[in-house]
Specification:
It is globular, with a radius of gyration of 21 Å. Strand 4 and strand 5 form a beta hairpin. It contains five helices and six strands. It is of the alpha+beta class. The protein has a six-stranded antiparallel β-sheet. It binds adenosine-5'-triphosphate (ATP). Adenosine-5'-triphosphate binds next to helix 1.
């Protein structure tokens, strides 16, 4: 799965609609300090539902909306769209946040839950906390990771993370069913 383009509008320093295209091979983004290079990486994390304000280098949720400058008034929404491609599939995933509180995720033009996006990308290594985004200090974190943390990374790389999540959900449902069954047995016992 490859990120082929990215559109931003009203996200952090990207006040005006901006589109970036990523060609095959390596793309290097260069620019002056404070020019918005890291904001591009923040935008990818944000679309995948990053909740940590520290990771997004913000104080609160609405800080990602362009705050205004001497020339451009503040934006009322932040929008980021990512286009991915692999051999047989194109995926367009986006997120919109408005200053009046609307927060919407979309997958190929349809409004979806964040969970649907995570499931779709599970096993691809793409996501807010997986290895496709290696932020500053992350390599050090991997080197110092506990065996449990390393296992999670390996599961994601091997594409088995999806099944682990499904197993977790199924076990939770099974527990509910078992509890209900116990209750039914109690009632039957009382009726006897
Ligand atoms: P460096 O090379 O120093 O790491 P950089 O190119 O990575 O810099 P970023 O950290 O991406 O730069 O961008 C920081 C800039 O983004 C700052 O000028 C900051 O004012 C601006 N910025 C962040 N959030 C907003 C916002 N909500 N509205 C307007 N500007 C913002």
């Amino acid at each position: 799965m490859k990120l082929v383009s990215m559109a931003l509008s009203g996200f952090k320093s990207f006040a005006r609609p901006t589109k970036l295209f990523f060609a095959d091979g390596i793309t290097a983004i260069i620019g002056p300090n404070g020019g918005g290079k890291s904001n591009i990486v923040d935008a990818i994390r944000w679309v995948f539902g990053e909740q940590s304000m520290k990771q997004l280098r913000a104080e609160e949720k609405y800080d990602v909306i362009f705050a205004g400058s001497s020339k451009i008034p503040a934006a009322t929404s932040a929008y980021v769209e990512l286009s991915f491609e692999n051999e047989d599939e194109k995926l367009v995933v986006s997120r919109l946040l408005t200053s009046d509180g609307k927060n919407q995720y979309m997958l190929n033009g349809e409004v979806v839950r964040l969970k649907d996006i995570h499931e779709k990308f599970m096993g691809t290594g793409i996501g807010k906390e997986f290895y496709s985004i290696a932020g500053q200090g992350q390599i050090e974190r991997i080197v110092n990771a506990s065996p449990e943390e390393l296992r999670l990374l390996l599961e994601e790389a091997a594409g088995t993370a999806f099944y682990r999540e499904r197993k977790k959900e199924s076990l939770a449902r099974l527990e509910i069913v078992n509890n209900n069954l116990a209750r039914v047995q109690d009632i039957l016992y009382e009726l006897d």
